[in-house]
Amino acid sequence: MKNSMNISLSPVLSDYELLDSGDFEKLERFGRYVTRRPEPQAIWHRSLTEEEWRRRADAAFLRDARSDERGVWRLKPQTPDRWTVGYDHAGMHLRMRMGLTSFKHVGIFPEQAANWNFIYDRCRALVGKGGRPRLLNLFAYTGGATLAARAAGAETTHVDSVRQVVTWARENMELSGLDGVRWIVEDAMKFVRREVRRGSRYDAIVLDPPAYGRGTDGEKWILEEHIGQMLACCAQLLSPDAGAFVVLNLYSMGLSAMLARTAVRQAFGTPADEQYGELYFEDPFSKQLPLGIYYRFGLFPFGAGRHRRQQAPHRFRLGLSGQPAPHAACRIAPRTDLGPAARRNGSGTGVHRDAVRRARAAVSGGLPLPAAGRRNAGGHVVRQTTVGT
Question: Collapsing DSSP states into helix, strand and coil, what is residue 284?
C-alpha cells in the first residue's frame, strides 16, 4: 500500500519568528535580533507601518543599486554581525552561528527545521535498529541537515564547493557539541559520480541544490539542466535496505513540488511512501510566506518508529537492485549555452533570462561572510564582505 502525502510544513522554532511580510520584504527575529531583508515571494502589502519596521529592525539589508543580488547591512549601534541561535527537537540540540552576508543570507534557512526533524527521527530509527546509517548531504551549506544527522548518530558526509562555507559548518558542529563529520570541499556532481564508480552506498541522501552555481574547479551547475543527472547518480548510491530515505529541497521561483516529485520518481522509481509540498512560515497577520519546496521519501511509513517489512524495498522499481533505468544513466553532458531568453527545460517550463542572469551574478561574485564593518555618518554599521568561490 502506497502512502503519498502533499503537505505544506511550517516548523516551530523558539529562536525564530516571522514578524511581518509584504512589499517584497520580510521582518524576522533570529534569537535576540531582528532583521529586515528582501523577499521576492512577499507580493502582498505589509501589515505593520514603515515606522514600526524601522523601529524593530536591528539590521536592515540595503540593495546595491548596481546589483540585483548584492547589498550591505545597516546595523543599529550595539548590533553584532555574528551571533548564535539554537534549535531543539527530541534529543537534538543544535547551535548555529548567524552571519550577515552581502547576498542577504544569514547562515541558516529556518524553514528547513521541518527537514532537520525528519532527518533526525529517521536516522535515530535506523540507529535504534542497531545500524550505523550513512548520510550524504549535497550542497550542504552551513550544515543544518548535517548536524541533525550527526546528532542522531549517523555517519555523515558533508559536501559543498565553497571552503569558507564548510568552515562555517564545522564551527556550527563544534557549537553543537558534535564531531566526526566527513568534510568534502568539491563539486557535488563530480563527487557523486566518483562515489558511483567506487560502488559506495548511503542510507540517506539530502540534496539542497541552488538554481546556479560553480564547483571548486569552475564547474557549472544549472538546476534545470543538471538535476536529472544528479538524481540518477544518487539513485545508484542509495542503499536498497529498509529505512533508506531521500530529501530534496528546491528554492527557485517557478518550480513546484509536483516537478520535484516527477524528477525523483524518474530517477528512483515509485516509492512506497513519499511526502512533498511547500515549506512556509506564517506571520502574526495570517499571511503565509512560501520559502521553498521539498520532496522526501523513505522505505517505511512517515511518522513510524519502526521499519516496514523487509519487502518494502521491492516497492521501488529501481531501489532493490540499485540498477538505474536506461533513461537514468549517471552521466552529465556539458552544456554551457543558455540559449534564448526562455530556454525550455525537460518539463517544458520556460527559464527566463533575467533569472539566470541574477543567478550567474550571484555566483560570479562569490559567497559572502561577515567581517569587521564601518560606521556611517548616522552611527550605523555598514558591512559588506564577500568570499569568492
Answer: coil
- Residues 257, 277 contacting (CB under 8 angstroms): yes
- Which of 266, 161, 159, 255 shows the shortest CA–CA distance to 207? 159
Rounded Cα–Cα distance for residues 31 and 13 (Å): 10
Question: In the numeric block, which cell numbers belong to residue 302?
Answer: 512517515
C-alpha cell recorded at residue 349: 517550463
* CB-based contacts of 24, cutoff 8 Å, min separation 6: 38, 39, 40, 42, 43
Give the integer Cα–Cα distance in Å for 312 and 299: 6
User: pTM for the complete prediction?
Assistant: 0.80
User: Which runs of E-coded beta strand occur in 223-326?
Assistant: 245-250, 273-282, 288-298
Task: Identify the DSSP state of 378.
Answer: T
> Which CA distances in Å does 270 have to 164, 225, 258?
38, 22, 14
Where residue 307 falls (left for φ over 0; alpha for ψ -120 to 50; beta otherwise) is beta
Q: Is the dihedral of CA 290, 11, 278, 98 positive or negative?
A: positive
Q: 165-194: per-residue pLDDT in tens?
A: 999 999 999 999 999 999 999 999 999 999
CATH code reported for the domain at 82-365? 3.40.50.150
Helix (H, G, I), strand (E, B) or coil at 95: strand
CB contact at 8 A, 135 and 203: yes
